[in-house]
Design a protein that fits this description.
By secondary structure, this protein is α/β, with parallel strands linked by helices. The chain is built from 15 helices and 15 strands. The chain has helices at 17-27, 44-55, 68-82, 97-109, 126-132, 153-159, 182-192, 225-228, 237-240, 255-265, 274-283, 288-291, 293-308, 336-347, 375-385, and strands at 31-32, 92-95, 115-120, 136-141, 143-145, 148-150, 164-170, 201-205, 231-236, 249-252, 314-315, 323-327, 349-350, 352-353, 366-370. The protein has a 7-stranded mixed beta sheet, with helices on both faces. A 4-stranded antiparallel beta sheet has the order 11-12-15-14. Strands 1-13 form a two-stranded parallel ribbon. A hairpin with a 7-residue loop joins strand 11 and strand 12 (323-327). The longest helix is centred in the last third of the chain and has 16 residues, at 293-308. The protein is globular and about 55 Å long.
Amino acid sequence: MHNLQLNSRLPKVGNTIFTVMSALAAQYKAVNLGQGFPDFDCDPKLIELVTQAMQQGHNQYAPMTGVPVLRETIATKVEQLYQHRYDPVTEITVTAGATQAIMCAIQCCVHPGDEVIVIEPAYDCYLPAIELAGGIAVAVQMELTDYGFNINWDKVAAKLNSKTRLIVINSPNNPTGTVLSKADLHALADILRMPEHDHVLLLSDEVYEHMVYDGVLHCSVSTLPELAKRAFVISSFGKTFHVTGWKVGYICAPATMMSEFRKVHQYTVFSVNTPMQYGLAAYLQDPQPYLDLSDFYQSKRDLFRSGLSQTRFKLLPVQGTYFQCVDYRAISNFSELAFAEWLTKEIGVAAIPVSAFYQQGMESGLVRFCFAKQEQTLISALQKLAQL
């Protein structure tokens, strides 16, 4: 039997911190503000449209690239928002959520020994995908000031070399809530414009594109042709329409890059569930639900921040996403994981240690809360946190 043991392709990977903290929250009956999913339902109209699609017989395999009407609708949406037209036939693919899009994008372009720059703190799916491709993750840590997290683009430029194949960016950023500005994108474009960097590709994770606050608009990589020509741009209907369990997202990229992406995609999932695609295509005919999403979540952000301001937590800015990071060092000198566990067991509120978003587990005295919850859930959590 010893010979049947597997030599792991991902020896450093265990259960994700989200699984661990959600299980702990369930065990201690804590308010779960850890894992990033809503505790409220989507628009009933979306359910009706998916049901109609099922009743109309859309229950067999969809085309590998996604149903045409949805890809055309995505192309129109992106063009209206970001003034960039992707060809729905050759440059847009519907995916089984954003994580699958990220995995396949990395597998299609990263070869053994290639370097991939990852901006930290970073969502936890990037590193395993790079490792499976045989790539080498090169971390560039965001800088934390009184104004929140920001990227030092000189540090990014210093990491680029002839082995660099891909840069991964995420805006609005999970876990920090930071939103890249037009100036950030131009700084990145300035770096990639240099002749010695013309081989470098870009992966832009934009799943929180419709959660940007205080009147600021999301700056998509798609808005800059200079970046769009070398970028995989990824988004998620699950995040936008409160249906994370449906696992439907999409990726946009130039045709030559998309051709390679589809080679991996077709042998990973082949296609994405059909009735959801038709339902989403119909629902997207009205742009108001996603145009109103920032106001919807800003009210939750403001409610949650107002309550937290009465505690000893130091609140970091939240420009986008539905995550709030807090500095707890006025409360405890525990490590981030130990504090998150203590908070769940003793106070009854689950959070995620920000150290989990670093390759080397860097400690900053920060935990992340998710405020994509019903008002009563947030109030219940705030009442418990008021003890601190």
